[in-house]
Amino acid sequence: MLSEYRQRFGEFHTEFHREDYLFRSGLKRNCETAHIRSEHSDLFQPAAIADLRAKLEETSEQRETERTSISRLIAFAMEGNLVARVRAISDEIENYESNARIDWQERQVPFRESAALFASEPDGARRRDLFARRAEVIKAAQDLRAERLEKSRDGARELGFENRLAMRRELRGCDYEKLAEKSRRILSKTESGYVNALSGLLPREIGVSVDDATQADLSFLQRFARFDHFFPRERMPPVYRELFAALGFNSEKQSNVTIDSELRPDKQPQAFCSPIRVPDEIKLVVNLAGGQANYREFLREAGHAQHYAWTSRNIYPEFRIGGDRAVGAAWGMLFENLMFDERWLMATFGFAENREFRHALAVFRLMALRRAAALLDYEIEFHSDRLTTGAGARYAELMTDAVRARFDETDHLRSLDEEFYSADFLRASAFESQLREYLKTQFGQRWWASRKAGEMLIDLWNTGQRYTVEELAAMIGLGELDFECLFSELLDRIKE
User: Please, what's the b/e burial string for 27-44 (b: 16 or more CB within 10 A of its CB; e: otherwise)?
Assistant: First the structure.
């Protein structure tokens, strides 16, 4: 039973990610994943869950790897069961947002392109106008999202859990409440330093005071184009090749990784990685626009692609994909955060006077951490059924307090689409920070130019998603995830 289930698990992921790639890369107009889930619906049926649980029961405690793999499959089946219950609603939301258009400057802008538009809009009034029009599109799907969340809540109870929080805690082995306690220290310990840094950055870069800043202004702030001339688009492919060559391998000979940089009308603006068949068919999709934001996206997704590309073929498919999301996120951060490294900036771009640039990036990263910490609190309250009323107001309150820009209620349900990614982001950030310091200690400040460091990374990538970030940290000798170290590092950076 297990070998057949594993095979179909792998086939499902391949078909699903291929369809997702074709849609998001602009090669297909519509995302047709409904039939894929329908063809593999047997994977999520109660009978399949019962069979997997029986297999787990009969597997000896000494067979730890086998028990971990079966537990991973049970989590996949149960979460897939919930997805199946709300599939019709999800398809309706997806179709609506894919086809929605916003009237903007005498043209119809696709909804999914609107975020990139207001991130590049320098005029504050127009930026906020576009944000408001985008909000109207989101609000039109609010009832559907509420219905989907209610069905998911009912489904979790039918599967034997008190609520979605309890289900997620058991299936993913993460104590979200304990993590939230730690992440609240990020908010309290960084409050004054963050507000001081943001108060200087906002008026200087976009002419808005911290008291007047809104959610609409944050994307434009983080676009941060003032230093973009140091990051030309034509250098992007050579930077990719040179980076991994310095770590000891030739990316041009990686037949399993394809960089899709073609321009297409319907292509998603943001870079992404599609692990279609791990490790044999990986798509790294990017629009080569240049500028710091585009480079950061590209480096992040390059980290994801290399992680998948070096994953061992000899481990179970459930250890190659679908594990701890924090693991993949951490590998992306490791390479994205090279943009913080003054030595790398100088060696790669000749960007010598980079202190002000690195300071701004540190503020952005701290903003992301504070936002994730606040969102985790909101998700815990929501999915533990404590927010029976006033969820929108609570979301706006938490996010405004954390980010120090005015948020409204618009995204309070949409922010739950990628459930508990806030927790994975926080865990990945802590692991990446500790790992980066470890690499510097073992291989020098220029660890990114060490073949020995490359060998170590490949050894870790070989394990795919077999381990959680906590387990990887223990294996390497980093100890427990250290959030104090993480926010101390960023406070030091914004005080430079």
Answer: eeeeeebeebbeebeebb
CA angle, 45 as apex, 41 and 46 as ends, to 5°?
Answer: 175
HSE toward the beta carbon, residue 258, CA cutoff 13 A: 13
Q: Mean pLDDT, to the nearest integer, of 121-150?
A: 94
Q: In this predicted model, which residue has the larger pLDDT, 19 or 34?
A: 19
Q: What angle do CA 424, 179, 485 make, to 5 degrees?
A: 85
Q: Report residue 264 as tokens.
A: 């297409």
Residues 6+ apart with CB under 8 A from 303: 331, 332, 333, 334, 335, 336
Strand bridging mode 281-285 / 257-260: parallel
Q: What is the CA radius of gyration of the chain?
A: 22
Residue 238: partners with Cβ closer than 8 Å, 6 or more residues away: none
Phi, psi (5° rounding) for residue 202? -60, -55
> Which CATH code, of 1.20.58.100, 3.40.50.1970, 2.40.30.10, 1.10.1370.30, is assigned to 176-494?
1.10.1370.30
Q: Where are the domains of the chain?
A: 2-172, 176-494
pTM, full prediction: 0.95
